[in-house]
Amino acid sequence: DVDAPRQLAPPARPARALVGICRRWRRAHARLCAEPSFRLARRRAERSASGPHLRRRPLARGPGSRSARSAPSAHHPAVRPSLRPSRNGQHRRSGRGAAGVTHPYATLDYALSLPHVGEPIEIAEWDSFVLARALPDGRGVDATGAYPVATISPEADLAAGLDRLAKAGLVSLVMVVETHLRPSLDRLDTAFDSVRPFKTHHVHDRRIGPPAYGKHHRYELRRALAKVEVCEIALADHLEAWIVLYDGLAARHALAGLHAFPRRHHETLARLPGVRTFAAFIDGVLASAHIFVAHHGHAMSHLAASSAQGYAAGEHAVDEGGESAHAGQTRQGLVMAAWK
Fold first, then answer.
1. What's the pLDDT band for 207 if we cut at 50, 70, 90?
2. CB of 139 closer than 8 Å to CB of 306
3. What is the DSSP string of 21-46?
4. Rounded to whole angstroms, how far apart are CA atoms 204 and 200?
């Protein structure tokens, strides 16, 4: 097993972590992220004590210079491949920027990519979609949010949205809501019959600084980087290779149901604004890839898969090590349910 980055340590009290993130974010950051190491703190103190003439000058020469647009070097020597945020990777096509006002998970295009889950129903009052599905006994229809999380506009009219679903004949709604894009907990508690924390996720806040990898993790990165090439790619340029990777993952773990994504889902990801893909290659062949969905400075891990060669060479560790310094942060969700 590879040591997890210290900055991605789980919260000390998972049951209260969600409340901390929502209502006391400063305290939650302190609890979710480990303190800097003693050696790092000592170096910072030494730099602060140095005179201005001894301090290192910034690399950027100005707003329009190339050095201003280039990403800084990785904090750890093992993580060498640099990314260019302004272009989202050297192989990314022009014009494929970040997502707009609407979160990628809240678009009709994305909802249509999940036909194995249900039929999309637009809730205009929420600026979102849900997926309608038949009940197991065939006597009714309920709804669920999009995979892996749903988004609801913070200013959403929750009561009007639920009323719309009731008039459409749906008997219930269950969804996991992205913490960054949703109404307040008080409003959710009022509108839904049940609201509770769902799972414990790792959160990485880039404002705190680069993650501090453990010794074993750095060793695995150095070992794998000697065998592979790591970079950010445009998923559309490697779509067939990615589908082969994910189909192999599905067969290896006997994935079914929700995680048996149809080809349409992968094709939608390849053209969806805000999707960023980090990959590792062996002799020019895609061996591992990790897909993120980004929106307004926040990124969520969506799917990841590796080939047999990838697992043997450890590209998955490289892939995660390379993206963790650039992808943003993952979020924690809520599971909500409403019954008619």
1. confident
2. no
3. HHH-HHHHHHHHSPPPPHHHHHHHHH
4. 13
Give, as one character, the DSSP assignment of residue 122: E
Tokens read off for 49: 């004590």
Residue 141 identity: V
Please determine, for residue 16, whether its predicted confidence score (pLDDT) is greater than 90.
no
Tens of pLDDT, residues 273-290: 999 999 999 989 999 999
Q: Are 238 and 279 in contact (CB under 8 A)?
A: yes
Write out pLDDT tens, residues 282-328.
989 999 999 999 988 888 899 999 998 888 776 555 444 444 433 33
- Interatomic CA distance for residues 138 and 119, integer angstroms: 15
**CA 326 remoteness from chain centre:** 11
DSSP string, 144-166: EPPSS-B---TT--HHHHHHHHH
- Sequence spans of domains, the chain: 104-201+333-339
pTM of the shown model: 0.65
C-alpha 321/C-alpha 194 separation (Å) is 37
Strand partners, 230: 280
* Number of other CB atoms surrounding residue 100 within 10 Å: 12
DSSP letters, 273-322, are TTEEEEEEEETTEEEEEEEEEEETTEEEEEEEEE-HHHHHHTHHHHHHHH
Listing DSSP states for 77-121 in one string gives: TT------TTTTSTTSPTT-----SS-GGGSHHHHHT-TTT-EEE
